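User: I need a structural model of ATP synthase subunit delta from Mesopusillimonas faecipullorum for a docking pre-check later this week. Nothing fancy, just the predicted structure tokens so I can convert them on my end. Input:
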Amino acid sequence: MAELSTVARPYAEALFESVRNEGKGFDSWSGLLDELATLMSLEDVREALSDPRLDDAQRTELFLGLVKAPVSDSARRFVALLIENGRATALPEIAEQFNQLKNRLEGTALAEISSAFPLEDAQVQQLVGALEKKFGLKLKPTVTVDASLIGGVRVVVGDQVLDTSVRAQLDRMRDTLAA
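Assistant: Understood. Predicted structure tokens for ATP synthase subunit delta:
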């Protein structure tokens, strides 16, 4: 079977182009896709949608009935298309790729910051400022605490990783000594 990101790419790109041609709605689509992805990540939802007694229209209505946000006609058609093609399980990856395309258009990126200890807002803002200069992008930070880092931070922006944690330094020293 094809990798999920490969399956999701054409759907994310087509949806992105459709929204861009409309000239508005990136944020509302992004929010809706995030909600749809969250729903699809639930085991009970995936199980209900795979019930062979339901046809595609019933699956679509069942799934959209769980959505709290208002669903436009175009969103209904998009979900129906995914269900009809057996691609609804790709929604989390579609949402991620759509958001990456949106961020690229806006000149922004998501920065996943992991720290060994909780960071204060001022520290986060200082770190984000330095990272924005380094990457040349406006960054949207998400901060998590990961005690296994021992000290320092690990930052992931797109496919780039900046790891200044004590754990990474110890791993590099171990590798150097073992060589």
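Before docking, keep this in mind: The chain has two domains: 4-103, 107-178.
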